């Protein structure tokens, strides 16, 4: 790889920026969006495994009536941490991994708008996650569910809900900083000619997600601070005996929580919209419809939150209104599915692992979407809310849609990121196992819910007649675990094999978008020359031209694409920002402050000092590297 | 691959259908036993079949497209680069909108129907959710007890109702407009949700608020239910039961409930009563700090009412976890509540075996 000029020799003692861009320590100082993307992805995957183990504990506990693997206190911690982990520590950061890595590449940028802020986001997320998990050793993990309803959360004598509040405030800081960063990147750093309506749909969905986060995270942050104040400082925001209102928590939580659902699923929509065209060898059917429906989902997503609260007693007016908005949001969601089908229509479909996960993911999401529509039927929701029917529904959305999409993206982009192609044979085996395991696990939960099995229960008596389907679900969960194991084997197998040549991984799928224009893996500076964009699916249009005689697409003549050298060949004279350890230092202050609130006030002081040191070092270090 | 996809989707469909008809489930939403639960099912079932139709159309379409347009070996023609079809796309935006609009009409109608005021002859019951048991008080004027302050008839765990009469439940969270004396630790009460699937949909019991449920049972019998909102450690075992009685049985039940607890004649039960009403030796406390038995000095409403503990309708106790007639269960509970129900709010009074025997004799005399 070309050497990149990222050094500075100014002697400014502690303010000197580190220089190494490779090696172990570089992972702690990197501000390269691609390395940070990999860090996000690897961390999220580890949390995925941990959350998955928690899921297996839940399924073993519920495999039999009156299960005794976990006592209620342990079970409540495990199901709470399963939810928090999968939402905040897996799906969100995994999406952040892909957005971080690919948004700059797909829009023809060299990095994100604020590279050090990007590193800060990652470290705060990681430390927030570790902070949450440290609770297991410091008095007990959060035990109030990811929704953590007051006053159960405010009156719970354990330390868990406080860890929940502080942990989510910390990871919220990471998400907010990341959201601002990526939104500014998309708006300001697009390559020449990359107009908004030439953005890949994945980037569009990324932009919508970042804006959803930027507007919804402040709401949950307020709610979390109030929860923390109620618990630690004796305020009464949610205390009905002193003029507070527990329903206030629910309003704030779901006003964040429902946009959050779209934060979790829109990345999947983006991935489906990239993978389908590539492996159908056709452009996305109705690009504008897909983009606008994504934007519409973003807006309407802020107006449906009370459908989580139909049984709270908000009254028939509110229930009618939110029932109708919930039905309305199904429309832009449904449109996308038809557009994806239109993309496949008359295509040349190749069943790679990536494509299978996308088709399977869409098929599973349809089921989640249909059960979601039944939630708009408010009176029928009086029966279904807080039952396993809901558990089935959102797993079909977030696992069936989201996780399938992530695996699709991993198989699709692995050669781009690591210069190696994952085994297709093992990939297909993983897909089949996961599809079967997934449906065995979550399909029966629809029935369990309709037959009266409540959510968040650590046990059920034999007399309720729920045993058989619970056993099926447990078997399914282990099949999913097996499929994940196959993926891990795939990783090992892929890395034991010799590294393929650069040509083999340059464009293995005959892709359409800009990230495949550069080498695999891309150099630090992404593109030797920032591409000028002339069309949607720019890369495809550089490869194929219309034959003037027949009107058919034929491969462009080699060398037809302009290859002039503007002096950046080999990365020469491209200025990339230098690595920095200050984002990590600043991030380290956050969990210290968190522990301080819970255990000892001097730790708060220490945390503030560490964070401020980090911010000052960050602000004062030389910003531009010298040549 | 495509076949497997087909197989899996077919399997999901089959699972759903199987689940809809086969059922040994005893608190199923699909087995309504009264008009209010029936309304909910009547709304769900047609929507379900509409969803099945859409499911077959869409999933079938996906599978068909995948098979029909699969890549064939040796063919390397690049398909036509079709970018969309505005008319088609507008069409498939409007179509689901129309389906949804059609579905929402009966939905909205039912929302308002269920929110209507109860009929004049409805039976009124106040429901309180506490960690982790249910408290029911019959607030109609003709449901006062004959003893003490003539408080409403009050029972725990099992709600007894007459058949063919609308029951209007007021769900009171602690801090709401509670009319009777408040349970002792009401300040720290959390949200619960009262749910008897075969009789009505659920509504939350929220501190500071009063919610309402209308329910009615068509036949005498026992209907299972559970707290549906996560409420801490024993959320999973906060069970409720409704016993619906025929008109005659109902009258007899009401008459019995209005009477104070009978003073036992059996010496062991007498001994139990003395233990119950007095102070336990060694400063271990007293049952009357929390429990009430009508017609005696025990009047605290902090814990389940025990006046007619052994009445046949009081089928289960302590969050409906055990059958009342199960002597072993009651003995274990009295010996150490926390040992058989993790986190139970009733403390361990370190009762001696002879004390337990006497207390059980007393409790079983309370018919």
Report the sheet with the most strands of chain A, covering strand number, pairing sense and barrel closure: 2 strands, antiparallel
What is the CATH class name of the largest domain in chain B?
Mainly Beta
Beta strand % of chain B: 15-25%
Q: Looking at CATH, which topology of the largest domain in chain B would you report?
A: Immunoglobulin-like
What do the pLDDT scores of chain B average to? 91
Computed over alpha carbons, the radius of gyration of chain B is 27 Å
Order of helices and strands of chain B: HHHEEEEEEEEEEHHEEHHH
Arrangement of strands in the largest sheet of chain A: 1-2
**Low-pLDDT runs of chain A:** 5-9
**How many domain modules of chain A?**
2
Biggest interface, chains and residues, is: A-B, 105 and 109 residues
Structure, briefly:
The complex is a heterodimer of chains A (627) and B (367). Chain A is 63% helix and 1% strand.
Notable features of this structure?
heterodimer; A: 627 residues; mainly alpha; Cytochrome C Oxidase, Chain A; 2 domains; two-stranded antiparallel sheet; 19 helices; globular; B: 367 residues; alpha+beta; Helix Hairpins; Immunoglobulin-like; Cytochrome Bc1 Complex, Chain D, domain 2; 3 domains; five-stranded mixed sheet; 12 strands; 16% strand
Explain what you see.
The complex is a heterodimer of chains A (627) and B (367). Chain A is mainly α. Chain A has two domains: 1-32 and 576-627, no CATH class; 33-523 and 526-562, Cytochrome c oxidase-like, subunit I domain (Cytochrome C Oxidase, Chain A, Up-down Bundle). In chain A, 63% of the residues lie in helices and 1% in strands. Chain A contains 19 helices and two strands. Chain A has helices at residues 26-29, 33-61, 72-106, 115-134, 152-155, 160-188, 201-232, 246-280, 287-300, 316-344, 353-376, 378-384, 388-418, 424-450, 467-496, 502-506, 538-543, 582-598, 601-620, and strands at 544-546, 553-555. Chain A has a two-stranded antiparallel sheet. Chain A starts with 25 loop residues before the first helix and ends in a 7-residue tail after the last helix. Chain B has 367 residues and is an alpha+beta fold. Chain B folds into three domains: 2-16 and 25-72 and 82-114, Helix Hairpins; 123-258, Cupredoxins -  blue copper proteins (Immunoglobulin-like, Sandwich), CATH 2.60.40.420; 267-365, Cytochrome c-like domain (Cytochrome Bc1 Complex, Chain D, domain 2, Orthogonal Bundle), CATH 1.10.760.10. Chain B contains eight helices and twelve strands. In chain B, the strands form three sheets. Chain B has a five-stranded mixed beta sheet with strand order 3-2-1-5-8. Chain B has a five-stranded mixed beta sheet with strand order 4-10-9-6-7. In chain B, strand 6 and strand 7 (203-205) form a beta hairpin. In chain B, helix 2 (35-68) packs antiparallel against helix 3 (86-114). The N and C termini of chain B lie far apart (66 Å). The relative contact order of chain B is 0.11. Chains A and B meet through helix 3, helix 8, helix 9, helix 10 and helix 11 of A and helix 1, helix 2, helix 3 and strand 9 of B.
């Amino acid at each position: 790889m070309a050497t990149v000029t990222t050094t500075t020799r100014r002697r400014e003692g502690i303010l000197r920026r580190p220089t190494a861009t490779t090696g172990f320590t570089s992972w702690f100082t990197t501000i390269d969006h691609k390395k940070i993307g990999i860090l996000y992805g690897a961390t999220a995957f580890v949390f995925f495994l941990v959350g998955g183990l928690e899921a297996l504990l839940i399924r073993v506990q519920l495999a039999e009536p009156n299960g005794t693997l976990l006592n209620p206190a342990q079970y409540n911690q495990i199901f709470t941490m399963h939810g928090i982990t999968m939402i905040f520590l897996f799906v969100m950061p995994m999406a952040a991994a892909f957005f971080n890595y690919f948004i700059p590449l797909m829009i023809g940028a060299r990095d994100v708008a604020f590279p050090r802020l990007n590193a800060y986001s990652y470290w705060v997320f990681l430390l927030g996650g570790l902070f949450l998990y440290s609770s297991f050793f410091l008095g007990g993990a959060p035990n109030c569910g990811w929704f953590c309803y007051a006053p159960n959360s405010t009156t719970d004598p354990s330390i868990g809900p406080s860890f929940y509040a502080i942990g989510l405030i910390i990871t919220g800081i990471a998400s907010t900083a990341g959201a601002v960063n990526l939104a500014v990147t998309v708006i300001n750093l697009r390559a020449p000619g990359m107009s908004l309506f030439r953005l890949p749909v994945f980037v569009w969905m990324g932009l919508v997600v970042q804006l959803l986060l930027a507007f919804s995270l402040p709401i949950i942050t307020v709610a979390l601070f109030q929860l923390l104040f109620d618990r630690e400082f004796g305020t009464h925001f949610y205390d009905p005996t002193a003029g507070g209102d527990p329903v206030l928590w629910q309003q704030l939580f779901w006003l964040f929580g429902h946009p959050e659902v779209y934060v979790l699923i829109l990345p999947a929509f983006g991935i489906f919209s990239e993978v389908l065209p590539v492996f159908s060898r056709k452009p996305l059917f109705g690009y504008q419809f897909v983009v606008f429906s994504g934007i519409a989902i973003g807006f309407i997503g802020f107006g449906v939150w009370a459908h989580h609260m139909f049984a709270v007693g908000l009254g028939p007016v509110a229930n009618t209104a939110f029932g109708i908005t919930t039905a309305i949001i199904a429309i832009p969601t449904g449109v996308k599915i038809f557009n994806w089908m239109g993309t496949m229509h008359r295509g040349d479909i190749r069943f790679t692992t990536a494509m299978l996960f996308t088709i399977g993911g869409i098929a599973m999401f349809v089921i989640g979407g249909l059960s979601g529509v039944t939630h708009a039927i408010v009176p029928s929701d009086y029966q279904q809310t807080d039952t396993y029917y809901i558990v089935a529904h959102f797993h079909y959305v977030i696992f069936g849609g989201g996780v399938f999409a992530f695996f699709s993206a991993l198989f699709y982009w692995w050669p781009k990121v690591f210069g190696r192609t994952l085994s297709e044979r093992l990939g297909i085996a993983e897909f089949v196992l996961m599809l079967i395991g997934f449906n065995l696990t979550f399909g029966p939960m629809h029935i369990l819910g309709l037959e009266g099995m409540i959510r968040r229960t650590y046990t059920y008596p034999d007399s309720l007649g729920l045993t058989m389907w619970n056993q099926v679900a447990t078997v399914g969960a282990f099949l999913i675990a097996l499929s994940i194991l196959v993926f891990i084997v795939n990783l090992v197998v892929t890395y034991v094999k010799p590294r393929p040549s650069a040509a083999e991984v340059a464009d293995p799928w005959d892709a359409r978008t800009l990230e495949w224009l550069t080498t695999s893996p891309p150099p630090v500076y992404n593109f030797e020359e920032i591409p000028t964009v002339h069309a949607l699916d720019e890369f495809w249009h550089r490869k194929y031209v219309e034959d003037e005689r027949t009107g058919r697409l034929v491969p462009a003549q080699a060398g037809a694409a302009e290859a002039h050298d503007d002096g950046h060949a080999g990365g020469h004279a491209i200025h990339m920002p230098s690595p920095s350890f200050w984002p990590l230092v600043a991030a380290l202050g956050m969990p210290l402050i968190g522990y301080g609130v819970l255990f000892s006030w001097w730790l708060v002081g220490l945390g503030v000092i560490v964070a401020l040191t980090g911010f000052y070092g960050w602000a004062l270090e030389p910003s531009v590297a010298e040549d | 691959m495509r076949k497997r996809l087909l197989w899996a989707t077919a399997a999901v469909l089959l699972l759903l259908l199987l689940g809809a008809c086969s059922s040994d489930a005893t608190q199923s939403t699909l087995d309504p036993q009264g008009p209010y639960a029936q309304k909910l099912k009547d709304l769900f079932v047609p929507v379900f079949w509409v969803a099945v139709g859409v499911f077959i159309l869409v999933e079938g379409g996906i599978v068909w497209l995948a098979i029909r347009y699969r890549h064939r070996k040796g063919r390397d023609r690049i398909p036509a680069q079709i970018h969309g079809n505005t008319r088609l796309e507008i069409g498939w935006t409007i179509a689901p909108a129309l389906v949804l609009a059609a579905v929402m009409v009966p939905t909205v109608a039912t929302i308002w129907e269920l929110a209507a005021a109860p009929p004049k002859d409805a039976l009124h019951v106040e429901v309180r959710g506490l960690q982790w048991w249910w408290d029911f008080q019959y607030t109609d004027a003709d449901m006062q007890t004959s003893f003490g302050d003539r408080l409403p008839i009050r029972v725990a765990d099992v709600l007894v109702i007459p058949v063919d009469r609308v029951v209007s439940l007021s769900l009171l969270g602690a801090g709401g407009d509670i009319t009777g004396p408040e349970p002792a630790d009401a300040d720290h009460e959390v949200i619960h949700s009262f749910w008897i699937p075969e009789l009505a949909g659920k509504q939350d019991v929220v501190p500071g608020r009063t919610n309402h449920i209308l329910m009615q049972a068509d036949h005498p019998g026992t209907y299972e239910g559970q707290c549906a909102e996560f409420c801490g450690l024993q959320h999973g075992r906060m069970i409720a039961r409704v016993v619906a009685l025929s008109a005659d049985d109902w009258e007899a039940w009401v008459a019995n409930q209005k009477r104070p607890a009978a003073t036992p004649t059996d010496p062991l039960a007498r001994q139990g009563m003395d233990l119950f009403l007095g102070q336990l030796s060694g400063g271990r406390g007293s049952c009357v700090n929390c429990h009430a038995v009508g017609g005696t000095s025990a009047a605290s409403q902090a814990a389940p009412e025990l006046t007619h503990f052994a009445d046949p309708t009081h089928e289960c106790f302590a969050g409906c976890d055990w059958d009342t007639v199960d002597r072993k269960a009651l003995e274990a509970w009295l010996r150490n509540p926390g040992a058989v129900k993790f986190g139970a709010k009733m403390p361990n009074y370190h009762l001696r075996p002879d004390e337990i025997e006497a207390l059980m004799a007393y409790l079983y005399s309370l018919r």
